[in-house]
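Lab notebook, bench 4. Still working through the backlog of constructs that have no structural model yet. Next entry is a single chain of 281 residues. Request: give me the structure tokens for it.
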Amino acid sequence: MSIPNPPAGAPAPQLPPPVPPVGVQPPAPKKTNVVAMVAMIVAIVGFIFACIPGALIVGWILLPIAFILSIVSLFLKGDRKWMGIVGLIVAVVGTIVGFIVFFAVVATSFNNAFGGGETTVSQPVEKPADDAKPADDKKPAEAAQGTRENPYPLSSQISNDDWTVVVNSVNTDGNPVVADANQFNDQAPAGSHYEIVNYTVTYNGGKKGLAAEVQVAMVTSAGNVVNSYDNLVMLKDGFGLDEMYKGASATGSVAFAVPDGDAAVVRVTPGLLADEVFVKP
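Model written out:
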């Protein structure tokens, strides 16, 4: 049957849209992998925070989240999975960088807290004797002053950023002092005697410290270290756990059981990680 022609000047008839064959669906538009995009953004932000010492904790929270989202995005359908791969790489690298920054901050803080800076010593001024002989140019060079072989004299000021320590005196006959201080004190072990070291500590740090941070010991001529806690006794002016702010000072004494006939020297460590300095009684 033929279709009649439309009258002159009339619009052409509209044909219906083509119908796809049965069973064939039109192609669906591609969807963006939103999880991958979020993972990449979170990873980048976490990486930035991981590089900032004061904001490390934020980076450590965001980077694991980005890592998990990146892995999840790789198993989801959608376009732009490359963003998930980028997020995964950035999350792993950011975590490594965060650990490096963290350990660098901890090392710096630990050094500032316990290092105490460079140790310097100021010796007491002594007037030269009138009959003093000029120095012999051929005399062999002595060991560096402050070592066990060439200790500083008493009353020398041993200082760093945190502490100033002065060994005031050494009583090589400390048995009567120990016996008089407390009736429960033990006698010195056989073949040894007590020596009493009196010293003053001054705190120079910015916040506060404990007098116990300053360590004092005696070293025998044979090289053995004698600590006060080896034979712990109570003294009337013994040192305690004095809490000190900047400018505060404390003076006290400690006792050491030194072998008889031994000329031991005093070893001062002005801080937990400070350099050792030796003082001659």
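Notes after review: The chain has two domains: 34-115, 157-279. The two ends are 132 Å apart (CA to CA). Flag for follow-up if needed.
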